[in-house]
Amino acid sequence: AQSVTQLGSHVSVSEGALVLLRCNYSSSVPPYLFWYVQYPNQGLQLLLKYTTGATLVKGINGFEAEFKKSETSFHLTKPSAHMSDAAEYFCAVSALGETSGSRLTFGEGTQLTVNP
Amino acid sequence: EPEVTQTPSHQVTQMGQEVILRCVPISNHLYFYWYRQILGQKVEFLVSFYNNEISEKSEIFDDQFSVERPDGSNFTLKIRSTKLEDSAMYFCASKPDQSYGYTFGSGTRLTVV
Lengths: 116, 113
What we know:
heterodimer; A: mainly beta; 11 strands; globular; B: mainly beta; 7-stranded mixed sheet; 4-stranded antiparallel sheet
């Protein structure tokens, strides 16, 4: 079974400041990890994913995340926030290879506010 | 870029009525999913579908729910007798194989009154 914990349901940053959204996961098998973004009244858009290989993954819109197995973390960062980054962000885990299939288990989400 | 298309974008229905939510996955994708998001809550898995059958379902996906891929392109979610607590955003998703991320549709907002 898998689970995801996102620390902080609301994060507020100033435009140009570092964005750090925290995600910790639990998985009984090697995980596949994802970050999705949801703008108001829209669907889920994939920002980036970690499957295997390089632990630092780069995504769209300048976001990146680092898989740290020892810390069971997959935090999302962006060096400089832009007003258009304001949205809800979801971390998700999938444990491929299990007989339970490849369902995504989502965290509670973090609402990012960017202040001018 | 290929998209997953969901219709309708909004649906209002009376309690006890049947609803069918429609999805057109990306054409070369093989795995299909429904998720839902109750307002203010996290996205929850409902069901996965592969090779014309359900491969996994959650505890939410009870006998009131069914899925179908009637014509090789559409993928539908039917709720037989809607309850107030079925009000949510329903997302369809697809992917080509198990090693890729999902592509989600923009969702259908279902309101049961």
